[in-house]
């Protein structure tokens, strides 16, 4: 045997593997590239055959996404010249902008509910995780398993009584209701992940702090929390992504004021069917933040998706 | 652990008022204060609804008629569900979806992980790209796939016709009874293969090199090394991935609703979609509750059996 370890594959093998993986990655990326590019196509280009790879980019999709428009007569259009670039874009189609669409609102709802529930679940999750990690809680394993098992329920199955419950207490279609609901769903993930992260912080730090005269609470706040920042941050991002992407509860429990973007984007309708450039524009704005977070998270990704069961 | 005990022992030896002054709240109090909010919220939003579902499942309640009187009808709902042939059809659709997605994701995911483990240059970049779909909103992505699946103009049909020469307008992935079950399998595989891949990769990386080196000394062939070292060592990881994907896909709702809505007919009507129809379109709340209970018991039961098997493999 040479100095190369038995595991080290040869150069040819590496090349072949690289080519196959790259090919699969590009294939995976294709639908995402298509979303991105369709957002900048004109409606005619978006439904051209054969599908167009090279096209003249336009912001029509984005304008359609954010506005509602009405068709107007020639005389009206002639007497109301467009004031800026997006009004001109609409004007050229023989329409005028009637007002903003609901997309902005829906997006804002997603932000409010996403961040609200993330904050709550990480806050509660950190406390519970610390207790489970450091104290002798009676029935610890059972409680931890119970917390995990709440994830096994199909959302539709719990949606029936939650729908009735929210209706009874006036929480249906409110931000507060959705924040509470998503917090409850995310708590299992938050507790399990954070417990893993806190378990990894050596006990010695806290003991040193206790000997220095800190109380347990002070030690938790001043010693454990700073040590757990990375873990807390990545847990927060996982919770945020879940709340951001959630569809089933959102579509069943919200309709007007608290509806998030995922149930809204598929309902964007243009003249005669779905307005694909506008849908793609909405999808792009909605998906890109998650892609950025995924790239930031890549070191903790595995841990997050397996509830901390697999740590690299 | 033993060091905490020393601290604890010291604390308990201290007289109570002094101990409180030194250490603030007692450990037990802190533990309960920290755990209680989580448990209360989960009880209120998970367990209470579950109990309510079970109670409703014995009634003929309809949520769209809150003032009609509710009758307890015993096990009638359960009886009707288990003898309903439509429900068995949705179970079959779910089984088809579940088996094929798991099969494809395991095969492709493992193969990719195995290739990435060759440690070629740039493998991190490609891994990150491959992982992207699984973090995205299934609803938004599923909706966009209906565009890719359009018969004449869709990218998917175009690529298939480019590769095979079939007329791109001659087939509709989500409109034909024959093809729709595969349309949803393809999108789910696209989205979730990276999940299996990541877990397999962790498994492969956990195998220490010296095992292969020892096998090499014993002149075991690469083929033999693969089947006697790689596969058994990755198996617990792979089984964990299958558990997660299995539970998720049994509950599958968002992606498939937006892709096919359960159609054409009811060829892709998975159990969750069927359940949503009963509960929120036909408003048969009692009946749907019984359905939900059956689903939950099925998932929970299958998962428990599976976890037992998983632990046995791990211990081996």
Which descriptors apply to this entry?
heterodimer, A: 312 residues, mainly alpha, MetI-like fold, two-stranded antiparallel ribbon, 67% helix, globular, disordered N terminus, B: 316 residues, 2 domains, 0% strand
Helix content of chain B: over 70%
> What proportion of the residues of chain B form beta strands (DSSP E)?
under 5%
Could you give me the name of the CATH homologous superfamily of the domain at 104-267 in chain A? MetI-like
CATH class of the domain at 104-267 in chain A: Mainly Alpha
Model regions low in confidence, pLDDT < 50 over at least 5 residues of chain B: none
Uncertain runs of chain A: 1-6
Query: What is the assembly state of the chains in this entry?
Result: heterodimer
List SSEs of chain B in N-to-C order.
HHHHHHHHHHHHHH
In summary, what is this structure?
By secondary structure, chain A is mainly alpha-helical.
Would you kindly provide a written description of the structure presented here, covering whatever features stand out?
The complex is a heterodimer of chains A (312) and B (316). In chain A, helix 3 crosses helix 15, helix 7 (140-149) crosses helix 9 (175-199) and helix 10 packs antiparallel against helix 11. A two-stranded antiparallel sheet of chain A has the order 1-2. Chain A has 16 helices and 2 strands. With 312 residues, chain A is mainly alpha-helical. Chain B is built from 14 helices and no strands. Chain B is globular. By secondary structure, chain B is mostly helical. Chain B has helices spanning 2-13, 16-23, 27-56, 76-82, 85-116, 123-131, 138-148, 155-164, 180-205, 209-217, 222-250, 254-259, 271-280, 285-315. The mean pLDDT of chain B is 86. Chains A and B meet through helix 1, helix 6, helix 7, helix 8 and helix 9 of A and helix 1, helix 3, helix 5, helix 6 and helix 7 of B.
């Amino acid at each position: 045997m040479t100095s190369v370890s038995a595991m080290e594959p040869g150069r040819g093998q590496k090349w072949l593997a690289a080519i196959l993986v790259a090919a699969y990655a590009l294939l995976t990326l294709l639908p995402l590239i298509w979303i991105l590019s369709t957002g900048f196509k004109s409606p005619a280009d978006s439904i051209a055959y054969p599908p167009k790879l090279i096209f003249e980019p336009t912001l029509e999709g984005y304008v359609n996404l954010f506005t509602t428009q009405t068709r107007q007569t020639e005389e009206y259009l002639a007497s109301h010249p467009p004031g800026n670039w997006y009004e001109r874009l609409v004007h050229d189609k023989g329409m005028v902008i009637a007002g903003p669409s609901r997309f902005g609102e829906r997006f804002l709802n997603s932000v409010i509910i996403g961040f609200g529930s993330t904050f709550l679940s990480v806050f509660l999750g950190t406390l519970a995780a610390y207790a489970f990690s450091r104290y002798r809680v009676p029935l610890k394993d059972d409680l931890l398993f119970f917390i995990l098992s709440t994830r096994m329920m199909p959302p539709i199955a719990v949606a029936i009584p939650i729908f009735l419950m929210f209706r009874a207490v006036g929480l249906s279609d409110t931000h507060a209701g959705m924040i509470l609901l998503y917090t409850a769903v995310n708590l299992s993930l938050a507790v399990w992940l954070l417990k893993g992260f806190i378990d990894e912080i050596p006990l010695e730090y806290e003991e040193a702090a206790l000997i220095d005269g800190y109380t347990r609470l002070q030690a938790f706040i001043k010693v454990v929390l700073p040590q757990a920042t990375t873990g807390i941050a990545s847990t927060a991002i996982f919770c945020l992504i879940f709340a951001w992407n959630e569809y089933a509860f959102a579509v069943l429990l919200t309709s007007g004021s608290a509806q998030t973007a995922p149930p809204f984007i598929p309902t964007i309708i243009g003249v005669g069917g779905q307005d694909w450039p506008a849908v793609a524009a909405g999808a792009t704005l909605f998906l890109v933040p998650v892609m950025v977070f995924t790239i930031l998270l890549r070191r903790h990704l595995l841990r997050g998706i397996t509830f901390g069961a697999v740590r690299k | 652990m033993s060091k905490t005990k020393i601290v604890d022992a010291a604390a308990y030896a201290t007289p109570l008022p002094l101990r409180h002054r030194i250490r603030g709240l007692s450990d037990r109090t802190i533990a309960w204060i920290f755990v209680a909010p989580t448990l209360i919220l989960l009880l209120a939003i998970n367990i209470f609804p579950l109990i309510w579902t079970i109670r409703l499942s014995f009634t003929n309640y309809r949520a769209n008629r809150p003032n009609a009187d509710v009758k307890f009808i015993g096990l009638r709902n359960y009886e009707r569900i288990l003898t309903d042939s439509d429900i068995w059809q949705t179970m079959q659709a779910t089984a088809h979806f579940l088996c094929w997605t798991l099969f494809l994701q395991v095969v492709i995911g493992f193969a990719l992980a195995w290739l990435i483990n060759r440690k070629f240059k740039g493998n991190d970049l490609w891994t990150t790209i491959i992982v992207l779909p699984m973090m995205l909103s299934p609803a938004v992505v599923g909706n966009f796939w209906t565009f890719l699946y359009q018969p004449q103009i869709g990218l998917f049909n175009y690529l298939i016709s480019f590769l095979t020469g079939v007329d791109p307008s001659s087939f509709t992935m989500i409109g034909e009874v024959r093809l729709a079950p595969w349309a949803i399998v393809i999108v789910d595989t696209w989205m979730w293969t990276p999940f299996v891949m990541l877990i397999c990769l962790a498994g492969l990386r956990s195998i220490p090199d010296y095992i292969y080196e020892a096998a090499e000394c014993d002149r075991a062939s690469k083929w033999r090394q693969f089947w006697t070292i790689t596969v058994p060592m990755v198996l617990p990881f792979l089984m964990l991935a299958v558990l997660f994907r299995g539970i998720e896909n049994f509950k599958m709702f968002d992606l498939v609703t937006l892709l096919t809505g359960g159609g054409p007919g009811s060829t892709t009507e998975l159990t969750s979609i069927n359940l949503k129809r009963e509960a929120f379109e036909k408003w048969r709340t009692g009946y749907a509750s019984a359905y939900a209970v059956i689903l939950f018991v099925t998932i929970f039961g299958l998962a428990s059996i599976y976890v037992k098997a998983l632990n046995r493999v791990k211990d081996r």
